[in-house]
Specification:
This protein is mostly helical and 142 residues long. It is 32% helix and 6% strand. It has a domain at 38-66. The protein is globular and about 40 Å long. It comes from Callorhinchus milii.
């Protein structure tokens, strides 16, 4: 069942609950063995031609390439799309200089994140763990 935190009024405008067509998982919680997690991860999305198998220790595939879900590649794809949208809209808005700056400028994302953090605290689920700030300070040239 979905988490009750998703039904909080301040979050409802930010959240859409999707139910996948295929539900594969562990139906018996007792059979889950978190200490025996596999050393690989598999991902796929509509439009992908194949599954991507990633080594969970390195974040790379068997050819040494980073995952298509890594921050760098997703940001690169976002910048290309953003550039196309700017061209179509003939906008004069400037370019973003870093991943961090781009993320900070995403107002709806920031609003949703703040609402989620507040709901975690109100629900007694603890504090949001912040990652090292350097992790998001990278730029791309596309």
């Amino acid at each position: 069942p979905p988490s009750p935190i998703l039904h909080q009024k301040n979050l409802i405008r930010f959240v859409r609950h999707n139910l996948p067509l295929i539900r594969v998982g562990i139906s018996n919680a007792e059979s889950r063995q978190p200490g025996k997690a596999p050393n690989f991860s598999v991902n796929w999305a509509v439009g992908d031609t194949a599954l991507e198998v990633i080594n969970t220790m390195t974040g790379k595939d068997d050819m040494g390439r980073p995952s298509r879900l890594c921050k760098h590649i997703l940001y690169s794809r976002w910048l290309r799309l953003y550039g196309k949208l700017l061209f179509l809209a003939r906008s004069k808005q400037g370019k973003f200089s870093s991943y961090h700056e781009t993320k900070q400028a995403a107002n709806e994302y920031q609003d949703a994140k703040q609402a989620l953090i507040k709901e975690f605290q109100k629900s007694g689920l603890g504090m949001w763990v912040k990652k090292p700030i350097e992790q998001d300070h990278f730029t791309l040239s596309i």
